[in-house]
Amino acid sequence: MFYYHIALLKSPLSPLTYQSEQTLPLGTIVEVTLSKRTTQGVVIAEVEKPSFECETISLTCKPFYPSKTLELARFIAEYYVCSLGEALSLFVPYASNALHVNETITIEITLSTEQQKAYDFIEAHPTSLLFGDTGSGKTEIYMKLFEQSINEGKQAIFLLPEIGLTPQMKNRLKHHFGTHVAIWHSKISAKKKEQILSDLSEGKISIIAGTRSALFLPLQHLGLIVVDEEHDESYKSGNRPRYNAKDLALLFGQKIGCKVLLGSATPTLGSFHKIPTFRLKGTFFESQSHIMYDDGEHGLSFKMTQAIQKALNAKKQVIVFLPTRANFKYITCKSCGANVECPFCSVGMSIHHNMNALKCHYCNYTEVIPKICPKCGCEEIVATRMGTAEVSQKLSEHFSEHVVQQFDRDEVRTEKKLSEILSDFNEHKIDIMVGTQMLSKGHDYHGVGLAVILGVDALLGMSDFRSREKTLALVLQIAGRAGRKGYGEVLIQSKNSEFFKQYLSDFEQFLKDELVFRKNLYPPFKKMLRLMSAHVKDEKAKELIDKVALIAQSFPQVEVVGFGKANISKIANKYRYELLARSDSSKALLEFAHAVKLLHVEADIDPLSFS
Ligand SMILES: Nc1ncnc2c1ncn2[C@@H]1O[C@H](COP(=O)(O)OP(=O)(O)OP(=O)(O)O)[C@@H](O)[C@H]1O
Ligand SMILES: [Zn+2]
């Protein structure tokens, strides 16, 4: 009889011991029973006969995890504080009979002299950062790298924040690489996924373009990972394991020996600080942009409608950005000052006029818009902080001859609708597009003459040490959608125009100044860890975080920055508390995280969100 440690897939449990009559290679996927239920696990180690009775492995499966994957999963389990089974579950296993086909291809792109310099720099560095302005032509450089990768008989992964949002990118890839490229994201159908996996194992696919989960596909000849828009927070998983695909790409690069390229017009401070950087300046096409400010109250101002009118007169298109969905973010009582809150979350609910309802954006709870303040009974309650639906409506009324389109998650619910809107926009069937963050995601349209940016002061004022970096990056990305070819204007509504004036034309200077500000306090100089407790009973959640704080005392190298109620102290009826810790030593921080083995407490290493 042989004995093995089995990591149970998708289970938070530590590996368990099972027996087998035949020897099994490490990485074999097996079926075992646990409390009378059949479940899948992975053979991770052969062990001595244990002193207790153990159950027999019931079945072995064909697909398997190679030793490299086991090694990467071990790192993920250690670093992101999860079980090995959970870490392995991220990966798609390998088929046993994978083939490889060598092909050569030529694509029709000629790089400019500057682009070629960037390309040579990337070729010369195993890991690099392409810090290229919006519209500078980063994408074309990636395409050339993919061409080279195919011609070397290697495979490449092209990570994008939300490929679903950019059908344009899909078209560019398909145009150059045809069936050599496959698109992968969590919303493609199971059937389609199966087809891609089968094509992969037959060696038909050389490039996988997709969201963060694409990193875990079985690629035997991986030679290159490109992480586009590396600053984008959607690379970080919001669930356990809370990994960051960008950081994992860098790790995979080291462990597998493949090349890694990060690209962005607004790189994160961490990447800029650590990684050899090529600076690609200016736009590929001749273009010129003019930035204007409006320091009025939040809402549509005369200056704004004038600027829009001017762009429309010049037959240009306009994009209007706001960080808020719905008609209004809050409904506020004039007497007691309170926002009407969700009964299950400690957040104000938003007004959606099309449903005549108040809706919670955290748990989706919906109720009728009240006529009086539920707290004090006062009859004067007013809507505050305009959202996309309201601005769209106002602009449609004001510019009734023109087509206005709302562009956010409420309006764009399917991929079909998304491509329709974007292709209408491309064909200039839409004059004004009003949207949320979705507007900032790498769209390349040549007709946009004006970008209007609203509501950024609220983002700048968030209690997050990264709020300056995040807000500036967002504004730059949106501004970068205007005037990609020819003349473009940007109008920013803000009372912080000094800040934007100083840095919008020089993000690099911002990064340098920010490094000074973060020194000795925050990443990239310190490591951070956030521990969160959540429970239906308030006192239980608090008790848990108190326990965590007590455990922290045994780790002298770990500094507790603070602990107590989370920013949003209740979501979906669960009370939330948090502890924020930092350290110079990654090792000490992880030891502390692993020492906190409490049910209902979750660890988030290198946290990006503090809400
Ligand atoms: N070498 C080239 N030959 C022809 N067209 C190019 C070349 N490089 C860039 N372009 C064109 O310039 C425009 C901007 O390039 P691209 O979209 O690659 O910029 P980007 O750096 O990815 O921008 P962003 O950061 O805003 O997404 C595109 O329309 C692209 O097709
Ligand atoms: Zn709610």
From TrEMBL:
The keyword Metal-binding applies. Residues 364-529 form the Helicase C-terminal domain. It holds the Pfam family Zn_ribbon_PriA. Its EC number is 5.6.2.4. Gene3D superfamilies: P-loop containing nucleotide triphosphate hydrolases, PriA, 3(prime) DNA-binding domain. One of its GO terms (biological process) is double-strand break repair. Keywords: ATP-binding, DNA replication, DNA-binding, Helicase, Hydrolase, Isomerase, Metal-binding, Nucleotide-binding, Primosome, Zinc. GO terms for cellular component: primosome complex. Residues 119-285 form the Helicase ATP-binding domain. Zn(2+) 1 binds at residues 333, 336, 373, 376. Its cofactor is Zn(2+). Belongs to the helicase family. PriA subfamily. This is Replication restart protein PriA. The gene is priA.
